[in-house]
Amino acid sequence: MAKVFTGKVVIPGDRMAEYLAAMEAAEKAQAPFRESLEQFNVEFGEFLAIKYVPKTVRKHTGIVDLFIHFICGYTDVESIDDITKGMVNSHFRAWYKRKVMDSATESELRVALKKFFQFLATEKGIVCQKVLDGLK
């Protein structure tokens, strides 16, 4: 089961090179997943642009972009199917409050992610039912 990384890590100075090498290897391993999510977000923006004004499109795609950063940087998720409703709801919201200086409300976060996962289900055929159920 996928995990969310929380807490602080203390790295001794003499092992910093090992840590940086491990982080670089992890980023390379996760690069295809990140790129696919970013491409889905671009397509999501194009999909939203048909119905909504540019400001709304930027708001939703910006939130999804930060969600992608969270999923790829703070979890060990390797596919969309591994994303849990807890990651989308409580973990992402708590991370967003701590890390992002923005006026987005929890409702706006929920709506943007719900629309993104609905887009994946209807337009791309990638159904993550546990996340969709958690975003109601």
Q: What Rg do the Cα atoms give? A: 16 Å
Query: Which stretches are low in confidence, meaning pLDDT under 50 for 5 or more residues running?
Result: none
SSE string, helix = H, strand = E?
Answer: HHHHH
Q: What portion of residues belong to β-strands?
A: under 5%
Decide which structural class fits the backbone: mainly alpha
**Integer tally of domains:** 1
Main sheet specs: none
Number of strands: 0
Count of helical segments? 5
Explain what you see.
This protein has 136 residues and is an all-alpha fold. It has one domain (13-134). The protein is built from 5 helices and no strands. The protein starts with 15 loop residues before the first helix and ends with a helix. The model has no long low-confidence stretch (mean pLDDT 91).
Any descriptors?
5 helices, globular, mainly alpha, 136 residues
At a glance:
The protein has helices at 16-49, 54-74, 85-99, 106-123, 129-134. It contains five helices and no strands.
